[in-house]
Amino acid sequence: MDLSEERQDEKVFSVFLLCLAIFTISFHPPVLAANTQKGAKVFSTNCAYCHAGDQNLVKANKSLKK
Ligand code: HEC
């Protein structure tokens, strides 16, 4: 493989990473939280800034409290 082909591969890879990031952000985080052994840690790093204290800081009527 010559140099220009390698650069092409890098480009494809960064586009792939970008798509992955958009895909991840587009879906609501609970999908990622499913089946995790480290749920509490995942919650505090990924969820707490919108759901602090089981609230919903974005939409109050969508709190995590039943
Ligand atoms: C960017 C802010 C944000 C983050 C981060 C976030 N959520 Fe939410 N969550 C919301 C909003 C806004 C809603 C209400 C969506 C709607 O209108 O249906 C919601 C709804 C929910 C609901 C449904 C509540 C209901 O009464 O319908 C659950 C469960 C939930 N989120 C869990 C989580 C979990 C678990 C995480 C972390 C993995 C998380 N959320 C991360 C903003 C967020």
Task: Write up this protein.
With 66 residues, the protein is mostly helical. The chain has one domain (3-62). 62% of the residues lie in helices and 0% in strands. The chain is built from three helices and no strands. It has helices at residues 3-26, 30-33, 39-51. The mean pLDDT is 74. Bound molecules: heme C. Heme C binds at residues 29-30, 32-33, 42-43, 46-47, 49-51, 56, 58-59, 62, 64.
What is the compact description of this entry?
This protein has 66 residues and is mainly α.
What number of structural domains do the residues give?
1
Q: Mean of the pLDDT scores?
A: 74
Question: What would you report as the Rg, rounded to the nearest angstrom?
Answer: 18 Å
Count up the helices: 3
Order of helices and strands: HHH
Number of beta strands: 0
What class would the helix/strand composition place it in?
A: mainly alpha
Helical content band? 55-70%
Shape: elongated
Largest sheet: none
Small molecules held by this entry: heme C
**Which stretches of 5+ consecutive residues score pLDDT under 50?**
none
| Distance between the ends | 59 Å
Work out the strand percent: under 5%
- Give the assembly state of these chains: single chain
Task: Please give a handful of descriptors for the protein shown.
66 residues, elongated, mainly alpha, binds heme C, 3 helices
Please render the helix and strand layout as text.
Blueprint: H1 3-26, H2 30-33, H3 39-51
The structure holds heme C.
